[in-house]
Write a structure and sequence with these properties.
Radius of gyration of chain B: 22 Å
Oligomer: heterodimer
Number of domains of chain A: 2
Strand content of chain B: 15-25%
Number of helices of chain A: 15
Largest interface: A-B, 22 and 17 residues
CATH architecture of one domain in chain B: 3-Layer(aba) Sandwich
Distance between the termini of chain A: 22 Å
Low-confidence stretches of chain B: none
Structural class of chain B: alpha+beta
Strand order of the largest sheet of chain B: 3-23-22-19-18
Low-confidence stretches of chain A: none
Largest sheet of chain B: 5 strands, mixed
Structural class of chain A: mainly alpha
Number of strands of chain B: 23
CATH class of one domain in chain B: Alpha Beta
Radius of gyration of chain A: 20 Å
Chain lengths: 294, 462
């Protein structure tokens, strides 16, 4: 579900904010962000707005599209239906049926912002219902582990690609185009209002990337995600049934160490390498959870 | 809703009064809202195809089918008696086989029956309960008499619709359901769970019960979820269970946990690849071994299919008398066995008046309705009968009772049947009412969901 919301946000932002100097919208970066160029060009000729939007919203053959993600969420929910609240299932079911009913007609660019808004709302409603009704036992802990692992992965990927795509050349710094791009990045991450609380004026690559990735008060940052991951794991290990389970904490400690670094330090020693380290640690953590508990 | 002489039955008076106050358009609107709700709630059959999961709502008709207190008492007693006979019969078949020795039921009907499981021979079950969950299909004939059409002693389904339909009715029609003396069905889960605990292996305190499902891709998965939820028990698949030292364990995040009773919605053949179909991915290797060792109980028992067979059905009245020394409270539909000479002769002589059914099929398939068949269909049927008579039985066409049904904005009569559910642990309990299936197509007698049937809420009044 997080994946679907993230996609909706990125598509919306791209439509509204990301335009190059001629005012034309470029949709190729989104494909690059998700490393989808190969699968996309396999079946679509050009990276037009119609094609990319279709690819990411209603294309069932794209395993990462919104329809595929929501379907997977619903099928997962179906198999654990008896462990979640009725409201959780109903909302997911209704939401999925709506997404499945979308056709290319609904994807017109003039309607895109509204459509993406509805998709985001559907996911946020899901989160709200789960937070409000799910009994706080193992199901909750595993759910939270999943959510925050996904969010951590998304934020590192977003910043990594965008940062390198947007690295200013000497003639662009401070120009209107430049600011618009960084603005777009902040909005893609729903970070704009938070950023302005910390940096009332000005934007540099380091402050923007640093804020999104590492400000512990920004709800999608790495430190924030990792603290929730740790809380979920602690919750699991405190469960009566799991008292005797031993869980290797090395990848968690590695993640915590990574999130304790400063933006300047990260940028100086290489953002790309940093992001790689984070993603490796996340994967490792996931593998350890699977082998320990399942 | 009408009595034998065509006049409205007294017990439905209150309900008809309330319905009279409702416009058909109101009925229609609430029916559409209910449909929407069924879809949203996922009370559906799911048909899986290549990349899609298509949810189909089982059509629900909002006009309830009402059963009088006296009629219900008769049905209830008849069902309890019938289940008792089934349990005795199964115990006997898997032990001394007295009934076969006494020639009351032909031996080869049992011993050559593909659902007869010789592996069950000699195994004693707690309370001798082979059929903890039974669904008996009843029809009401032209004289108003309820008759048994079929027994379902393996994995009878549909009870989830009974309970969900009732909840739907109560939400959509509070004006109809309020204070009308309607007997509740919401305690089905509790009764079932108690019965399952009662059939646990002896000596187990606080038996652990689980529900074993073939998984998400089974079209009745909704019911499996429903039942697990109602009973508050884990829903597992074969791969979640493991057998060690002839004991059954469930894999949990905290390690292995012992399982004592399994309500399994997986057919016998797929239950244990070690014992039955070796290619089954739905079962648990060693499960039958644990069962024979008395370390786990199964609901329903393995091998009950020999008792709900369409050919064995014809002998049920005799079976009831043999074990209980009583006349059957519920009669069978008159049945002719084509494996017997008189049965075949009679059938061939009256082909255009009878309904011919293959013994092994379900879902209403392969049935030829004589009075409605073309000459070509009758000729084909005759040929099949002559070629393989043992595979067929015939019954007169029952003028099934009808019930007012909402069809496209007007109220019309449609044929219905009834499936009460009987839960047995130490003793039997019958869910008040059961599943009423309605044939939605005009004049049709086929109520199966797979062929255009729907359901109604069934009301038993106090």
């Amino acid at each position: 579900m997080e994946r679907a919301e993230n996609l909706a946000r990125i598509l919306e932002v791209n439509e509204t904010f990301a335009r190059d100097e001629r005012g034309a919208n470029d949709w190729l970066p989104i494909l690059k962000l998700h490393r989808d160029e190969d699968p996309f060009f396999h079946r679509y000729e050009r990276a037009t707005s119609e094609g990319v939007v279709r690819f990411y919203i209603i294309d069932a053959e794209n395993p990462n599209s919104i329809i595929s993600s929501v379907r997977a969420a619903r099928e997962n929910a179906r198999s654990i239906r008896h462990l979640t609240s009725l409201e959780t299932w109903v909302q997911l079911n209704v939401f999925y049926n709506w997404v499945a009913s979308l056709t290319t007609r609904n994807l017109r660019l003039s309607e895109l912002a509204r459509l993406c808004g509805r998709i985001k709302e559907g996911v946020q409603l899901h989160s709200g219902i789960v937070t409000g009704t799910l009994y706080r036992d193992q199901v909750w802990s595993f759910y939270r582990l999943g959510v925050f692992t996904e969010l951590a992965d998304q934020v590192t990927r977003l910043v990594d690609i965008k940062y390198h795509a947007l690295l200013p050349s000497w003639k662009d710094v401070g120009s209107p185009v430049d600011i618009a791009q960084w603005n777009a990045l902040l909005r893609s991450a729903s970070a704009y209002h938070g950023y302005r609380r910390v940096f009332p004026s000005g934007m540099t690559p380091t402050t923007v990337a640093g804020f999104i990735l590492l400000d512990p008060r920004f709800p999608r940052s790495l430190p924030h995600c990792v603290s929730h991951i740790e809380a979920a794991l602690d919750g699991l290990l405190a469960d009566d049934d799991l008292k005797d389970i031993s869980f290797p904490r090395d990848s968690l400690e590695a993640l915590k160490a990574l999130t304790a670094r400063s933006p300047d330090d990260v940028i100086a020693s290489g953002l790309h390498e940093y992001v790689d380290d984070v993603q490796v640690a996340l994967l490792d953590l996931g593998a350890k959870v699977a082998s320990t508990f399942f | 809703m009408f009595g034998g002489d065509g006049s409205p039955a007294r017990h439905t008076e209150e309900i008809r009064e309330r319905m009279r106050l409702m416009k058909v358009s109101t009925l229609q609107r609430r029916a559409q809202q209910s449909d929407r709700e069924l879809y949203n709630l996922g009370i559906t059959f799911t048909v899986y195809s290549d990349r899609n999961a298509i949810d189909r709502v089982l059509p629900f008709d909002v006009i309830p089918r009402v059963i009088s207190r006296d009629d219900w008492h008769h049905i209830e007693q008849g069902c309890i008696q019938r289940v008792a006979a089934l349990n005795h019969f199964l115990h006997d078949l898997y032990h001394e086989q007295r009934i076969l020795e006494d020639g009351v039921v032909p031996a080869e009907l049992v011993l050559r029956n593909p659902n007869y499981r010789p592996e069950m021979s000699g195994l004693d079950l707690p309370h001798g309960t082979y059929v903890p969950i039974c669904g008996i299909d009843l029809v009401r004939d032209g004289k108003g008499v309820f008759r048994v059409l079929e027994d379902n002693a393996r994995t009878p389904s549909g009870v989830s619709y009974v309970v969900e339909n009732r909840h739907l009715m109560m939400r959509a029609f509070p004006d109809l359901t309020d204070k009308v003396g309607l007997r509740q069905v919401s305690d089905y889960g509790m009764h079932l769970q108690n019965a399952l605990a009662e059939i646990a292996p002896p000596g187990v305190d606080d038996p652990k019960v689980v529900l074993m499902s073939p998984g998400v891709f089974n079209s009745a998965y909704f019911e499996h979820v429903f039942l697990a939820r109602e009973m508050g028990i884990p829903l597992v698949e074969g791969r979640d269970l493991v057998v060690e030292d002839d004991c059954v364990f469930m894999k949990t995040t905290g390690g292995l946990r012992r399982v004592d009773v399994i309500y399994r919605r997986v057919d016998d053949a797929f239950l244990d690849p070690e014992e039955f179909n070796p290619e089954s991915l739905l079962g648990v290797p060693g499960l039958f071994r644990a069962y024979r060792a008395g370390r786990v109980s199964l609901a329903n028992a393995v091998g009950t299919g020999v008792a709900d067979d369409k050919a064995v059905y014809a002998y049920m009245p005799r079976i009831v008398r043999y074990y209980l020394g009583e006349d059957p409270i519920l009669q069978n539909v008159e049945t002719h066995l084509c494996r017997e000479r008189e049965g075949l002769t009679y059938t061939l002589a009256h082909l255009n008046e009878l309904v011919v059914k293959p013994v092994g099929e379900s879902g209403g398939y392969g049935v030829v309705v004589g009075p409605k068949a073309t000459r070509a269909e009758l000729e084909a049927c005759r040929a099949r009968l002559e070629e393989n008579p043992s595979n067929y039985i015939s019954q007169p066409m029952i003028d099934l009772s009808v019930c007012p049904t909402l069809i496209d904005g007007s109220i019309e009569p449609r044929h219905v049947d009834l499936r009460p559910y009987i839960v047995t642990g130490k003793k039997s309990w019958v869910l008040p009412g059961g599943l009423t299936r309605v044939a939605l197509r005009k004049g049709s007698l086929v109520v199966n969901s797979s062929q255009g049937g729907g359901t109604k809420d069934t009301w038993v009044l106090e």
